[in-house]
Amino acid sequence: MALAVLVGAGAGAGSVVFRWCITTFTRLLSGHADYAASAGASNGHVPWLGPYFLLLAPVIGGLLYGPLVHGFAKEARGHGVPEVMLAVAQRGGRISPKVAVVKTLASALTIGSGGSVGREGPIVQIGSALGSTLGRVAKVSEGRMRLLVACGAAGGIAATFNAPLAGVFFAMELILGTLSAEAFGAAVLASVTASVIGRAAFGNAAFLRLPAFRVEHLAQYGLVALLGVVAAAVGVGFSRFLYLIEDACDWLWRGPEWLRPAVGGLALGLLLLVLPEMYGVGYPVLQEATAGGYAVGFLLLLLGGKMLATSLTIGIGGSGGVFAPSLFIGAMLGSAYGIGVHRMLPGAAGPVGAYALVGMGAVFAGAARAPITAVVILFELTGEYSIILPLMLAIVLATASSRLLTRDTIYTLKLRRRGIDLEGPARGARIGAQQVSTVMEVLPSPLPAATGLTDAADLLSRSGHGALPVLDEAGDYVGVVTAQAVAEALAEQPEGAPRLVGQLAEPPASVTADQPLAQALHALLSTGGTGMPVLESAHGKPVGWLSHQSALRALHTPA
């Protein structure tokens, strides 16, 4: 608890320093606190250049952060969250402490010089690096190290966006990938501590101001549902486009990596000259769109421009997050959609700003597939509760549609392109790459579904396993019965309690003989260590048994 509070305080202080750096570099390089609010204006430091200073700002920024990232912390390049996910999943939560310093400067220079990226990726990586460093100093266990990394991520999100609940769920859903009482409690402590510091520095105002929204016609639910499906396609498309541009930049660039951001900055500068609203994070433009200040055609132009500007910023080696661009793209999509349906159904559509908010959450959910985080963070960023039901509907549909369209999220796709599977073994690991069929044990004698509980208890006690497979009268596999389930049923014996094994059998997560062992271990962990049957891929019949002991035998089995 004490360490979680310390990590939260560090993440809160880090967010204050980070945002101060962004504002400072933005003022130095653009002459404005947020150039997107004054898009097209000249730079007060060099007024004689007019708007053409936009050609030089990304180049100057690239000359500064390019050598910094290349020379001190290459992992600070890009949007940051995938590196934290990898550290938690396969590296015991170990993150170099210098990442916090390099990421702060590199991301602030990227955004300040016109890079069209967000703040959430950098602050997650900064907070996580602080948590990992504190864990090493305190010499905590590997499990606690991962937890402190998640606390750093929660604190960073909470302080930067004034969203303490969203910080907690971001850490649980995306960083740890699980929810437990201990992890939740520690993340809450870190998030609350960071939020207190963030609110003291930035105030307690809501991020967006939206008109009141009430569902007065059932047709609005249908309209919102359709927007959720469309937003999922846009979110997935943004993910694909991001890495397509990154591949194009990799293919085109043949010079030293430290020079790449500066040379690529020329292309970014040309885009900013045409569409200056893309400068930096772009929250003022997002606010104007939610207020209905733009026409449909310009909204769609801003949507496409943000996709290109963000992808180009990341592709040339910039440092920044993709969460804020996802919100921006969603707001443009939602506003354009809202204007369209309002023209077709003026009496039933509702305000445009509501669709902008729904679009923000749905596009992020489609790209990141983190529905709980999407719902909570949009509620906290706006303080608007009246839209929670349509927002939840759209986000759930966007998440489901995204899962149908692609296996990966915008975060995991970056790792998979590098040959890293978070569910697979780490590189160099001694077990994990083997197939389950090479290490599984002989299948223990199954229990007929009609076996009584007393007989089942006797057979389980003599089997040497904590669970046994169960077959029905036709010999088909129906699930597994555990010794714990049988013991509890025998101890309680209330009226109408199960009397036969078949009534207690439950199918565990499916593990097949041709599956990599690393993936099967995740399923084995969920059984509580009792072991589980290995199924034949074609017909789903049990052909072997997998336990932790049999998995460890892979150490003596060639991959």
Descriptive labels:
559 residues, two-stranded antiparallel ribbon, single chain, mainly alpha, globular
Describe the structure.
By secondary structure, the protein is mainly α. 59% of the residues lie in helices and 4% in strands. It is built from 21 helices and 5 strands. The strands form 2 sheets. It has a 3-stranded mixed sheet with strand order 1-2-3. Helix 18 (453-463) links the parallel strand 1 (447-448) and strand 2. Helix 15 runs antiparallel to helix 16. The longest helix has 34 residues, at 219-252. The chain starts with a helix and ends in a 7-residue tail after the last helix.
Order of helices and strands: HHHHHHHHHHHHHHHHHEHEEHHEEH
**Mean pLDDT rating:** 86
Q: N-to-C terminal Cα separation, in Å?
A: 42 Å
Q: What's the arrangement of strands in the largest beta sheet? A: 1-2-3
| Helix coverage percent | 55-70%
Strand content: under 5%
What form results from the Cα inertia axes?
globular
Structural class: mainly alpha
Largest sheet: 3 strands, mixed
Please tally the helical runs, counting DSSP H or I stretches of 4 or more residues.
21
Overall strand count: 5
Cα-based radius of gyration, to the nearest Å: 26 Å
